[in-house]
Design a protein that fits this description.
The protein is of the alpha+beta class. It has eleven helices and ten strands. The protein has two domains: about 15-100, Winged helix-like DNA-binding domain superfamily/Winged helix DNA-binding domain (Arc Repressor Mutant, subunit A), CATH 1.10.10.10; about 105-275, Endonuclease, Chain A (2-Layer Sandwich). The strands form two sheets. It has an eight-stranded mixed sheet with strand order 3-9-8-7-4-5-6-10, sandwiched between helices. It has a two-stranded antiparallel ribbon with strand order 1-2. Helix 8 packs parallel to helix 10 (about 195-205). The chain is elongated and about 85 Å long.
Amino acid sequence: MGDERRSDEPGQLGDAPVVADIDFLSGSRHRLRILNVLRGDAMSRRDVRASVDASRSTVRRTLEGFLSRGWVESTDDGYRVTAAGELVAAEFTRLSETLRLTEEFAPLLEHVPPSSFDIEPEWLAGAELTVSTTAEPYAPAQTQTETIRTADRFRGFLPAIELDGTELVHDRITNGEFTASIVLGPACADHVMEEPFAELFREKLATDRFEVAIADGTLPFYLGLPDDERIEIGVADAEGIPRALVQSSNTAFREWGEATFERYERNAEGLSAADFETEQTG
């Protein structure tokens, strides 16, 4: 038959049976909920209906569709999910959560290059998102500044730099309250080697509580690793306006951030206080 697949040929997304199954499961908000309910003990139709608050006809049509696809089976104790149904429910639930997270974190994701942000979607679950709004256009930057104000240690890379934040870091480091290791984007190089930045960098480097390097290429986003638990990812638009900042305590996300920072740091050019000498200091 034209629509039949040989058992040794994997189904592709464009195959009619695969598309039909996806359409069926996503065609009603009740169907995935019913399939997940049946992943527990066997249930009667009445119990299923009560669990998902669906009509009798909706539950009947859904169960018939699941039975015909081999996702559930009918037993003396009621309906229960099969091994195939368990796999379908688990993967479709994961896909649904991924879609929810990508919608929630769209202000961040639309500004990061996919090749540089190879994370698992579930790492974003529970993260805090600060976005730029008309009323508070610099809200992400303000949240980032608060991190610098309260952390004891910090590592990260910054595509851009501004004076207020540099002065805050300088004051906390020279007062013995803070240690930092940063990688700056190439666009910052000439900028920070001129006054008033240069003096602030010289004084920070003199404390041995500060390290700075210049990346060998464009930095894809702001990455912050304050203290030992959190990770921050920040993005800006083409004009350099901060658009979103994500903060997370997810362990895997943090480990990814540490590995990412260390990769950029290895390829960066370290700077010393002498690199910040200017004509004014001479």
